Amino acid sequence: MPGKLFEVRWHGRAGQGAKSASQMLAEAALDMGKYIQAFPEYGAERTGAPMKAFNRISDEPILLHSSVEKPDLVVVIDDTLLGNPDIVAGTDENTIMIVNTVRDSNWVRQKSGFKGKICVVKATDIALEELGRGTPNTVMLGAIARVTGVIELKYVEEKIRDMFLKKFGEEVVQKNIRALHRGYEEVRCDA
């Protein structure tokens, strides 16, 4: 990825943590010395409504200021969105898709028509086991670190600590770090 602009488009529903995860991804990359952008795009601003978030990460200043049209990575936090043509818009066989699902990559490909590399992780299940609630965003960040190498886990761990320690305490920090590591370990990719 050196010098190259790496673009991420997140698809989820409002309230699932896509905006927070895109912010944490950006801040972790910033701490690694990268240039970053992170911004959400909402339709109807209500819990459960489909929404998108975007990231750009680069070794050089980022001069683009628009939504991500041709993502290198598509992150799908809610697999019920897979039939939506927005998910695959601007993608090709070089694009990677990471999906939070209990299903396999063949099901994702059939449902979405996606042509690139598909990775799946049971992020909601892991979040329920580790955090006691179905918020899959830290699990997805672990999967992103494993699949793309665009961020390193230690930087995400620092962001988790920064975000949660004062507000929720060490126990919540540790639960999120375990969820992050499980996303890293348990993501599975085709081909």
Write structural notes for this entry.
The chain has 191 residues and is α/β, with parallel strands linked by helices. It is 40% helix and 21% strand. It contains six helices and seven strands, in the order E-H-E-E-E-E-H-E-H-H-H-H-E. It has a seven-stranded mixed sheet with strand order 2-3-1-4-5-6-7, sandwiched between helices. Helix 3 (123-131) crosses helix 4 (137-148). The mean pLDDT is 93.
Properties at a glance:
Oxidoreductase_gamma_subunit, seven-stranded mixed sheet, oxidoreductase, alpha/beta, 6 helices, Pyruvate synthase, 191 residues, 7 strands, oxidoreductase activity, acting on the aldehyde or oxo group of donors, iron-sulfur protein as acceptor, Pyruvate-ferredoxin Oxidoreductase, domain 3, Pyrv/ketoisovalerate_OxRed_cat
Number of strands: 7
According to CATH, the homologous superfamily is Pyruvate-ferredoxin oxidoreductase, PFOR, domain III
Largest sheet: 7 strands, mixed
Strands side by side in the biggest sheet:
2-3-1-4-5-6-7
The CATH topology annotation reads as Pyruvate-ferredoxin Oxidoreductase, domain 3
> SSE string, helix = H, strand = E?
EHEEEEHEHHHHE
The number of helical elements comes to 6
Q: Give me the Rg, rounded.
A: 15 Å
So, CATH architecture?
A: 3-Layer(aba) Sandwich
Global structural class = alpha/beta
Measured as a percent range, the helix fraction is: 25-40%
Shape estimate: globular
Strand content: 15-25%
Number of domains: 1
Average pLDDT: 93
Distance between the first and last residues' Cα: 21 Å
Low-confidence stretches: none
CATH class: Alpha Beta
